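Quick one - inputs below.
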Amino acid sequence: MNILGIETSCDETSAAVLQKGHVLSNIISSQFIHKTYGGVVPELASREHERLIVSVVDRAIIEANIQKTDLDIIAATSGPGLIGAVMVGLCFAQGLGYSLGLPFIPVNHIEAHIFSPFIQESGDRKALSEPFISLTVSGGHTMLSLVDPDLHYNVIGRTIDDAAGEAFDKTGKMLGLDYPAGPLIDKLAEEGDPEFHLFPRALTSHSRTSRSYRDNYDFSFSGLKTSVLNYIEQNDRAFIEKHLPDIAASIQAAIIDVLVEKTVAAAIKYKVMNISVAGGVSANSGLRKKMAFACKEQDILLTIPKAVYSTDNAAMIASLASLKLARGRAEQNSYDVAPFASFDYC
Ligand code: KG4
Ligand code: ZN
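Output:
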């Protein structure tokens, strides 16, 4: 069974082919056009997807060493995301599927991130057989969910303002870094002192406010943003430039401490000794290290996707379609599905 997956929800045009659930190809074309604007410009993203989609899909099929006519199923992101961007990939996938007479499976982008740690490569036997706590951290979403192997999940916490990736990108922008700043802060932080400045860690045991953090699995990063802005305004530019790695490391530590504390607390509370971390921010090396350390201390098994499957990619779309099919949970008559922009937390 060959599945073609297509992902265009934000600024990555991606197509992947999976055979019997294993990745044969995963082509990702990142749109650098947005750098000039310091963030993703929705209309430009749609136009770039339109320009790139045919060649990206062709490359995925060529790299998989199959023909278009060997495809059995088409899957694509139907949302959430930038509506115009989602529409390009979804309509393309539906058109291709219809013309080849194939079934079409719509995939929720956030759900695809949740299950991305279980993407299988050749020879892999990663079993999705135990319940797990999923920390899903991307540019648009930060949430904790309790997930069962039958693909059901309950959201137990979410950000009440900014996403963790947004906190990386926006504080990075204040420091003069390009978009997306997350990977740049990660790199700078390697050389910096995470204790150089104590930025706030809202709704955690480190928080100085009286708001209760126990049994509270929500996140808040807007105070961190304000705190970084105030810090930059209170110090001169030369000082900021000189200590850029230290400030980056301190910002990263503030974000990571919150993510790790809440995720491990949720695993203990729900007595689920498996944690997975997914989404763009799960590529962060500091988060990977600290989460691994905290999980080891509590005897919790940690699963994180390879960096290439952390950020947006079509392999996770095809992989969730494959898992849904295997569990008899793929939607029927899906050619009717329309793109959607926002996520309904269940
Ligand atoms: O999952 P993703 O590719 O797209 C969305 O669905 O949003 O996540 C993108 C986010 C951006 O905010 C980016 O800065 C962040 O993931 N990101 C990172 C790293 N790599 C990507 N944040 C911190 N450290 C990284 N290494
Ligand atoms: Zn994403």
